[in-house]
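Quick illustration, no need to memorize.
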Amino acid sequence: MKEKHTIHTEDQSKLPEFLHQLNISGDISHMAEEMREDIHLRLNQRIQSSIRRKYYLKVVGIAASFALLLGISSYMSYQEGYKNQNSQLITVVNPLGMQSSFVLPDGTQVLLNAGTTLRYPSAFVSKKREVSIEGEAYFHVFHDKDLPFIVKAEDVRVQVLGTRFNVKAYREEKEIEVTLEEGSVGVRLSNQSDLFRIQPGEQISFDKSRQLFTRRDVDVSYYMAWREKCFHFNNTSFESIARQLERRFDVHIDIESESLKQIRFTGDFVRGENLTQILNIITADGRTAYRFDEENNRIRIYNKQK
């Protein structure tokens, strides 16, 4: 049986002094110091590595987010720039003696009268659809409540959302006329914001010399008869008739005097009458006559009583 050794109370009080007197060799102390420094170094390395890893992940996350935003922004800018760059201004010149019809990029249908010039972008990329006209055109506008359709005719602006209307704006005419068949439009000057609104069956005309708008009820078919190649003259001056015939038949008409220009005529030509038939009827009262110079494609209207 093994003996058990016990430390008596008086011996326990001497234990600290005994341990203090123990003489640990220098090699052991040096080894302990190296172990302590090595542990401290390894611990610092792990802490720094952890910090760098977190910082790297944070930087990478920020960079990735920035790259994503930059990519989206660049793509959107590219798309917008591509559209703008590829939206070219198109000019359509419809010659005298002809009508032409086509569809704009938004689906709006346009019919051009003779001697009309229309300008429009190949793509509507802004917050409005804007075209300009010199001459006469009938519009059936594709409805889009978020993109107003605007027709520029010299200093006049016609603004619509979706409707059917006619714009007559020849430079040689004294007035610009907007006639509404369906829907609702507003008309204003380019330097003003207030709109003059008209309803179906109404027309608003702009006197270029007096800079005044006039609104009135009209027979819409009278002002849109050109679409069917028809003429409706209601107390219309010879001068105005001559301008319409010039465009329709691609001919130049000279009226001999100012007094003849003011002669009025009322009549309808709806059966496809040619130019000679129309002139024969207009001059049938014996006050006037005409002479056709085929070589120069000119017609001279003169006072028959002379």
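The chain has three domains: 27-85, 89-222, 229-303.
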